[in-house]
Amino acid sequence: MSSSQLPSLGTDDVGERRERKMMLGVFKLLRQMFPIVEPDPNHTKLRLSREGLEAISRITTPIAAVAVIGPYRSGKSFLLNQLLSLSCYEGFGVGHMRDTKTKGIWVWGTPLELEIDGVKTSIIYLDTEGFESVGKSNVYDDRIFALATVMSSVLIYNLPETIREADISRLSFAVELAEEFYGRVKGQDVAFEPSKLLWLIQRDFLQGKSVKEMVDEALRHVPNEDGNKNIDQVNRIRDSLAIMGDNSTAFSLPQPHLMRTKLCDLKDEDLDSTYVARRDQLKKLVASILRPKIVQGKALNGKEFISFLEQILDALNKGEIPSTGSLVEVFNKDIVERCVKQYHERMVKLRLPMSEEHLQGAHETAHDEALKAFDAQHFGRQHAKKSVDQLDEQMKEVFKNFVLANEYQSSKLCEALYTKCEDDMDHLQSLRLPSMAKFNAGFVYCNQSFEHQCVGPSKQNYELRLTKMMGKARSLFIKEYNNRLFNWLVAFSLVMVIVGRFIIKFILLEMAAWILFIFLETYTRMFWTAESLYYNPVWHFIVGTWETVVYSPVLDLDRWAIPLVCIIALCVLYWRCYGKRKHGSSWLLPMYNNQKNGRNRERSE
């Protein structure tokens, strides 16, 4: 080995020693208890303690929590130390005074490692503040009890000597929780599996009734001939606990020593041998029923466990009294949001505007699908109704927005169609060549296009407006039609006189034009009144002839009048300039002869 390698080896050794010292320091730092939940100043609600949460956040494997609950001064902290194989001076603090030692909920900083169903699991132990101590409200005790029930995988109900009526009443939250979340269909994700309930009865002697007999006896119905409400409530809890038999077990533990105030100074060989044997059996029992904390189908690690704890604590602090209903809301909140999103995505695909009936039908279909999705995923049984109501309310709010959007789009579309029809009617009023057939065709087309294209809630309102507008337009057109047609025929007759006289010099055309002019200006005024003119068969014949010439599905003379006049004028001009030279001036019909002074006229002597 070269001398140059020696320093590096020494440096590596120093680095390794430093790393081991740091790990040892961290281990020693974590080998103590930390508060994770503390009471607020009023000792009514709970709040998180970051000191203990940091210890839990370091855990990267699935977590299983063992919590011990029970009355104050019942030996919960000592029991936890026994389960952890720690002395009182190493583990949880044990109080010998009358006030409670543990405030809130505390956790042992160093989790035990255990393989459960082939999965490496970190076991954390939770010590809870004893209930029924002086200076606290019952609501505070209920919150501690409720939080421990939700957090833990195994809930050890530590009771001295026997099971009292009050002890059963305190399990109401655990019962409600199990009824809401436990026993779901296999294969579906559950919000979380309720903790296994372990009745632990500590008593001075083990003779007489077994602990199972004590539990069974405590869960039997109490006669209630007077109809006492409190007894009825406790009896309901008894019934539910009996049904939950698969999720609970019972265990008895003798007193470790007669000198209870000296327990912290005693070693295992000083304790009662029966107690030591039963304690070891208890350790094995707890290990056998432990399972990782499952939330929504997933085993929680440290950071996820803290997030779960924050959710639960927020829900339990909401009301005056902690309830499973508030927990159900927390776990169903995300599901409600997903179902509302599903409903919204289904409704967004609709092409607005549409009729109110179709929109309502689409809403009901999307609504039913969202409710089915919620039913397949939701948590809770009895208290889930509130979440259903929230889902229904949120979908109604979304539907209101779609109703407003449909009304707006319908109004926008119908307004555009109405304006187009109004413009078309104005255009038909101002035709150069008035045509009743063309007006009727435009009238029918406008009605049909509006009927087929205008949809939605605004259709009825715009239909009324359109009917009034088109009725007025039709009346005005009919009123002006006969007058304009009469004036057009008079002007047409004069134009034909000029054309026949001076342009094409066609005498018969000029004569026909004069006859039409004289008929319109003299005969009609002398023999027909203004009203009777339009009901005369002759006038109807004239109108029919005019309509046939002016408008047909093949030719719209109003549109082609100017191009046709230009073409005819060009033809006449061509004929006047070149036609006579090329083809001569022979006509089958009589024409004017203007060659009085021509070169072929014979000269008189």
TrEMBL record:
Gene3D superfamilies registered for this protein in UniProt: Guanylate-binding protein, C-terminal domain, P-loop containing nucleotide triphosphate hydrolases
Top-rank taxon: Eukaryota
SUPFAM superfamilies hit by this protein: Interferon-induced guanylate-binding protein 1 (GBP1), C-terminal domain (SSF48340), P-loop containing nucleoside triphosphate hydrolases (SSF52540)
Keywords: GTP-binding, Hydrolase, Membrane, Nucleotide-binding, Transmembrane, Transmembrane helix
Domain GB1/RHD3-type G: 60-201
Residues annotated as transmembrane: 560-578
Family under the similarity heading: Belongs to the TRAFAC class dynamin-like GTPase superfamily. GB1/RHD3 GTPase family.
PANTHER family from the UniProt entry: GUANYLATE BINDING PROTEIN
Name the record gives this protein: GB1/RHD3-type G domain-containing protein
Annotated organism of origin: Brassica cretica (Mustard)
